[in-house]
């Protein structure tokens, strides 16, 4: 064991030495590789074939200039990226993020996570992530369209239905996917519906893709709670974010009879002791593209608080971080535990710091890790690709039913490997091991690529 632990430490040290500034990438690699030491013990062939060293090196990374003109006629310059991490399991697959915080470090961490998340779905998709430091907030539809067209003019050389299939993520929703698809189609002169997922349903997006990540999160959390005999109905839930994932997590949680008392945006959070009025949140965020603080104007019983971390000081049974990475640090984890939290389900990617996860586990909080718990979005993206290939569209019920089954399967396979190699409740280790073995075995079968 000591030998394999040392091997993992050596690989981690080498990536830190190569790219010392990529802290988030180091953290996510460290989280995955630390879990798999017991697997390396029984599979020396992974080390002999340098599987770990290969996995931390993206197959391809592209970085490009995006030039566009704003409504005042001023020229704007942004940076675009696509990190194609692994095509072992299928075409590269993963979202595009438009947010000022986007760097190569952020995208490498997200692309690395995506490889294992996608493997957990059991569907034929590799892993990638891309995006830009462009901020769509406050931009007109016209400006967003010009940016998307310029971004796709370069990106289209690197993607295709059997090559790489981007989708949405922070700052990229149905509007952006539409502009991106239009430009791809114009340049390639080909109606490749399967080149992007998250399309609007009337031009061959999948029903239930919009809801899939949030609903999938609740399906996963329900499986985790059911195994312990805990009922979701009547529980108080704290949610962060008010975008795609948060909105549909709240919707499904409410359907299950839970009471969601918070949601947030990058400025602050709202606390509604009567339970969040989701129709009002949708109106503010999806229709008006406004700020979450507007909620208190029509809901006098609710409070608005500036700043994001405060949301974790609200008393709850279950916490669902659905905004962004790094939102739960050790202090937030301690505040949640002190207030009696019994379960945490990660809707966002890497929302909890490594020491926060360790603390939850030490305190026996049931913990649903992102790459398993939020895999429903990309799973339904893969179902969208399947529908596009057969030029058919399935019903909402058909897609939702498949999503539910996929999330159950992810939970059960993670649980099984947690039992086999670690603590039975350690779904972090269980999910990492399940995904790692699937990808590693396929890499071995495909030779030195
Ligand atoms: N959209 C999808 O299908 C999937 C998304 N995710 C992850 O879920 C998280 C949320 O993504 P979406 O809901 O799609 O994005 P979105 O753009 O629809 O919503 C993002 C939300 O997070 C908030 N936010 C963004 N940056 C923040 C910051 N620095 N501090 C506090 N709040 C911040 C925004 O105000 C917004 O409410 C991200 O971590 C994303 O990678 C994971 C799996 C799939
Ligand atoms: O649907 C997809 O391809 C991307 C989803 C995504 O970006 C994620 O799972 O983090």
UniProtKB/TrEMBL annotation:
The active site is at residue 129. Homohexamer. The record marks 169 as: Important for catalysis. GO terms for cellular component: cytosol. Residues 206-447 form the Glutamate/phenylalanine/leucine/valine/L-tryptophan dehydrogenase C-terminal domain. InterPro entries: Aminoacid_DH-like_N_sf, Glu/Leu/Phe/Val/Trp_DH, Glu/Leu/Phe/Val/Trp_DH_C, Glu/Leu/Phe/Val/Trp_DH_dimer, Glu/Leu/Phe/Val_DH_AS, Glu_DH, Glu_Leu_Phe_Val_DH, NAD(P)-bd_dom_sf. PANTHER family: NADP-SPECIFIC GLUTAMATE DEHYDROGENASE 1-RELATED (PTHR43571:SF1). It comes from Mitsuokella jalaludinii. Belongs to the Glu/Leu/Phe/Val dehydrogenases family. Substrate binds at residues 93, 114, 117, 168, 381. NAD(+) binds at residues 213, 244. GO terms for biological process: glutamate biosynthetic process. One of its GO terms (molecular function) is nucleotide binding. Pfam families: ELFV_dehydrog, ELFV_dehydrog_N. Keywords: NAD, Nucleotide-binding, Oxidoreductase. This is Glutamate dehydrogenase.
